[in-house]
Amino acid sequence: MSSNILITGAGGYIGGSIAAHLLAKTNGLIQKDQVIAAVRSKEQADAVSKLGIRVLQLDLSNEKDVTESVLHHNISIVIHTASVDPSIVLPLVNALGKQKQVNGGETHFIYTSGLSAFYEKTGWPVGSFKDTDPVFDTEKRIADSFLLRKTDVAVIEHAEAQGVTSFIVVPSLVYGKGSGEWNKLSVVLPLYVKASISAKAVYKFPENPRVSGVHISDLTALYGLIVEHILRGETVPSGREGYYFALAHDMFLGEVGDHLARALCDRGLISDSKTHNYSDPEAAAESLGVPAPFVQMLWDSGPDIIAELPHSIGWKPEWNKERFLQDVDDEVQAVVDLGKAKSSLVDSLLKSAMG
């Protein structure tokens, strides 16, 4: 059976960049006709079609259509970046289960979760942990306390029941200009840049929280590595042991604010490079234009995770904190060029943040 690859959310920042990354591979494992993109709208379809791949305008909540598409296009690998809603996610797993039943070959589901599932402020146990620790057991024990955790558990258990091999990829704070055809802009840092330009000043959190970051090119490389191992028939950790935390480096948001202030001042977008402190999360939420719980998860806290699994399969991020800070003006230029992000995945994460 042909190992065709479906990328959901291919009109988005992460999904679109994954599609471009897979098409750019020159190792002979991935051919252009194997890559299929799923998008929501005709406008997205028209844009993504420029890559020269098959594009499906697909309602992922319609299980009948999803299953028919998976079977008709001989899809055995799904990379899901579109939504964390179980009603969207599980039909894809069912379709892969049906594909395995009909054609007899192995099927694989690569699911994109969110790092906020592992924050203490959302109920994750206090203290550091490794990705080789019993992450699944902990998620299952407290699954009902947070939608992202509940979906992670549902994906793994449902995939087991359907005979589908699953992987959970957990991006950290993603930055950098994407390589997709529809949305090239990330979310968190552009929000910060736009708020700073609007306020004519850069504000920071007084706690100076530490967060983990990853450049979009390094994140897509991780997805690509998982796909390559699958296509080679190699066994890598999956299912309950298959949590791949995309943590390339740590950084302190205070440092980010200092460098951003200098970059904006050099461009004449703010009057001076002095930074100020947000008075509280509510003030930050108002400035950034997002719900307060979203601010607390993404800006005012960070998990203490030791990520070994991605490196064990050959992941070697090219971006580190020093390179990011040196090139922080790239984030400003992306906002100047592109405005704001267009992302259904972020809409889904915002929904989960609100309970």
From TrEMBL:
GO CC terms, sorted: cytoplasm
InterPro entries named among the record's database cross-references: NAD(P)-bd_dom, NAD(P)-bd_dom_sf, NAD(P)-dependent_oxidoreduct
A Pfam family hit: NAD_binding_10
GO molecular function annotations of the record: aldehyde dehydrogenase (NAD+) activity
All copies of domain NAD(P)-binding, residue ranges: 9-185
SUPFAM superfamilies in UniProt: NAD(P)-binding Rossmann-fold domains (SSF51735)
Protein name in the entry: NAD(P)-binding domain-containing protein
Phylogenetic lineage: Eukaryota, Fungi, Dikarya, Ascomycota, Pezizomycotina
